[in-house]
Specification:
Number of helices: 6
Oligomer: single chain
CATH architecture of the largest domain: 3-Layer(aba) Sandwich
Number of strands: 2
Distance between the termini: 10 Å
Largest sheet: 2 strands, antiparallel
Strand order of the largest sheet: 1-2
Structural class: mainly alpha
Length: about 130
């Protein structure tokens, strides 16, 4: 069994920039730390919370190499990846986050533990 994370940055520029920033943090092995920081700082949609300036500040607060992080974010290195994952998500029926798939099947009510558990157990039984 493997777990795969995909971005679904559908809200606007800040959503996309936050996804790109998390990939830049991943270059330093800190994806999940940065991802957690984004959730801690979240205060609304497209209200400036995830401006590039703030995203850089979050990296500094986490102790990332800010020169490397800032260069990565400013370069737009992950723009294509984030956009492609959005397109793929839409093609697979994703309408919001979080959305979960098990063995390629969209799990309706995937945020419900019992529903997700049943889908995983069924998939494991298919092996």
């Amino acid at each position: 069994m493997r777990f795969v994370f995909r971005h679904f940055a559908f809200i606007g520029d800040e959503s996309r920039w936050a996804a790109e920033a998390s990939e830049c943090a991943n270059e330093q092995g800190r994806f999940w730390d940065y991802y957690d920081k984004l959730f801690e700082e979240q205060s609304g949609e497209n209200v400036g919370t995830f401006s590039k300036e703030n995203l850089k500040r979050f990296a500094a607060e986490l102790g990332l190499d800010t020169e490397r992080f800032n260069q990565c974010l400013d370069s737009g290195r992950y723009q294509t990846k984030v956009q492609q994952e959005l397109i793929e998500g839409r093609q697979k029926g994703v309408r919001g986050t979080p959305t979960l798939f098990v063995n390629g099947q969209l799990i309706e009510r995937g945020g419900d533990y019992q529903v997700l558990r049943a889908a995983i157990l069924a998939a494991l039984g298919d092996r």
